[in-house]
């Protein structure tokens, strides 16, 4: 599974969805980046492959960051995705 974390203004925790296919995750990542670059405010809708009933909608000008990370059986259990990973290593 590939996890996509959105960092949203005024929300202290990231909003996350998971995708089964790397190509789907990369496409979604690119769509979010394009929405962030756009001068026109858009609604970005996300769905999760792991929790099929999970849906997220965010206004594009409120997204402050995006993190894409691989989750598989070979990764360490103490891996912290995102910007706090360097703090966890200290």
Automatic annotation (TrEMBL):
What the entry lists under InterPro entries is as follows: UPF0367 (IPR020885)
Entry-linked Pfam families: UPF0367
The protein depicted here goes by the name: Uncharacterized protein
Per the UniProt record, the source organism is: Cyanobacterium aponinum 0216
């Amino acid at each position: 599974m590939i996890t996509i974390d959105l960092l949203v203004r005024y929300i202290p925790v990231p909003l996350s969805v998971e995708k089964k296919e790397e190509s789907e995750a990369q496409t979604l990542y690119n769509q979010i980046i394009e929405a962030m670059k756009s001068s026109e405010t858009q609604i970005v809708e996300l769905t999760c492959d792991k929790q099929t009933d999970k849906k997220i909608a965010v206004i594009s000008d409120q997204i402050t960051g995006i993190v894409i990370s691989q989750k598989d059986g070979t990764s360490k259990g103490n891996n912290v995705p995102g910007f706090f990973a360097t703090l966890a290593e200290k």
